[in-house]
């Protein structure tokens, strides 16, 4: 077995979804076993699709991940009938267990929206309100607004905070080997 196979997998600890399909906003903390339960059309499948969307966007591109889902306009949440949000955001909290390094937590944020510059340059475009930029100009061009990994502060064994990356090694004493 090589070291890649021995490494424990990353674990999703929390998923936050905003303006994705039928989901206006949700925040779900996950455990080793999480059961999604609810009535029909409550958003269970859309919640799982949001996680798959991140996977697909990272494997190819956000534009390609939107194609089988019908494009940006089909994915954006409708606040009121006929009026859609101009972007959606999916935030994943990850916990990477210890192996050859200390445990590590990270937050991945992906935000996709319509291209406001394209929206403003469309013929007869008025200055769109932030919640309807895509809708008023009929643009469906997705733009990556945010693609970021955040490493929250974690306490070091010596009590001092550190920001992600490899933890500093403590010096060995001769009696430790």
The topology string of helices and strands comes to HEEHHHEEEEHHEEE
Order of strands, main sheet, comes to 2-1-5-6-7
Give a quick account of the main beta sheet: strands, pairing sense, barrel closure: 5 strands, antiparallel
Overall tally of domains:
1
Describe the structure.
The chain is built from six helices and nine strands, in the order αββαααββββααβββ. It has a single domain, classed as Rossmann fold. It has a five-stranded antiparallel sheet with strand order 2-1-5-6-7. It has a two-stranded antiparallel sheet with strand order 3-4. The C terminus is likely disordered. Helix content is 23%, strand content 33%. It starts with a helix and ends in a 14-residue tail after the last strand. The chain is globular. A hairpin with a 5-residue loop joins strand 8 and strand 9. With 177 residues, it is of the alpha+beta class.
Give a topology summary.
Layout: H1 3-6, E1 11-20, E2 23-29, H2 44-59, H3 62-66, H4 72-75, E3 78-80, E4 83-84, E5 87-96, E6 104-114, H5 116-121, H6 133-137, E7 142-150, E8 153-155, E9 161-163
Antiparallel strand pairs: 1-2, 1-5, 3-4, 5-6, 6-7, 8-9
């Amino acid at each position: 077995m090589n070291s890649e196979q021995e490494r424990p997998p990353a674990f999703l600890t929390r998923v936050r979804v905003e303006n994705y399909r039928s989901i206006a906003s949700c925040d779900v903390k996950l455990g080793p076993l999480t059961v999604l339960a609810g009535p029909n059309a409550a958003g269970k499948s859309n919640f799982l699709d949001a996680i798959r969307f991140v996977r697909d966007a990272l494997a190819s591109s956000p534009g390609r991940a939107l194609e089988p889902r019908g494009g940006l306009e089909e994915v954006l949440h409708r606040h009121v009938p006929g009026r859609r949000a101009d972007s959606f955001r999916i935030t994943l909290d990850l916990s990477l267990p210890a192996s050859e390094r200390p445990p590590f937590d990270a937050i991945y944020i992906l935000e996709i929206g319509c291209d406001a510059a394209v929206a403003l340059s469309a013929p007869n475009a008025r200055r769109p309100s932030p919640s309807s930029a895509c809708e008023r100009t009929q643009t469906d061009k997705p733009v990556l607004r945010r693609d970021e990994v955040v490493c929250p502060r974690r306490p070091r064994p010596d009590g001092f905070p550190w920001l992600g990356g490899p933890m500093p090694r403590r010096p060995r004493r001769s009696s430790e080997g």
